Amino acid sequence: MIDEIEITRLIVKNAVDDFLDSLEIDVAIAGGGPSGLVAARYLAENKARVALFERRLSVGGGMWGGGMLFPRIVVQEEAREILDEFGIKYKKEGDKFVANSIESVAKLASKAIDSGARIFNGISVEDVIIRDKRVSGFVLNWSSVMAAKLHVDPLAIRSEFCIDATGHPAEVCNIVQRKVGRLNTPSGEIEGEKSMWAEKSETLVIENTREIYPGLYVAGMAANAVFGAPRMGPIFGGMLLSGRKAAEVILDQL
Ligand code: 48H
Prior knowledge:
- By secondary structure, this protein is an alpha/beta fold.
- It has one domain (4-251): FAD/NAD(P)-binding domain, CATH 3.50.50.60.
- It has helices at 4-20, 34-45, 80-85, 101-114, 143-147, 171-180, 198-207, 221-227, 237-251; strands spanning 24-30, 50-54, 72-76, 91-93, 96-100, 118-121, 123-131, 134-142, 155-164, 210-213, 216-218.
């Protein structure tokens, strides 16, 4: 027998159990683009309790569209081992590697989940919890509630470490700057992303992957936006390496 009420109960119960299990965790990640997914995998693989919150229905962020909707990404030698670790196929072209952007997203997500990271889609980080001058959790709401501009109060989760992997808008860093006034950047403020310069940007994004306020790390495109570095276009090695670095720096402290 197939009963609609049983289906409803199974869905709600299992989804709520997952959410309840994620109320107090080691690492909370805002954003499920490439940097967030890579960080989630390496953290979870090393036994950290990880939850990733993605505003949209689908994870993958800006990776799906490759370059100008041509579904390919370019990755440099430094990040090739990450492609291998995720089982992403590629073609060597000169000293670069070209991968299918759709396969890349699918495998990043699949490996993050297999490693034990929990991914919650359709949920937006709308604020943070700050205790004793440290970011110690995310304030969450359904993206659909926010899109409809409904006046519905959010809920919260507590986390030892948080990562802003929200891409170009660096949303969590912006929230924290508004609340505390000063971030760990040269000016104390968000410096803003600069025009495209791939070579420089790909190096800087690794350097810029770091703690931006106690308890809050920034990874991926958000790291360059916050520290005033250029964008890089559809070369994705920096995003992969940045996600891995965020995981490594946090794992050292767990
Ligand atoms: C929950 C949120 C929130 C929120 C946003 O943009 P992304 O793909 O981010 P990265 O940094 O992993 O990768 C950047 C890359 O895709 C890119 O844009 C590049 C390389 N650009 C170069 C260039 O020159 O343009 O993913 C961020 C994700 C998205 O899925 C958002 O929906 C999500 O974060 N997000 N999720 N709460 N407040 N804000």
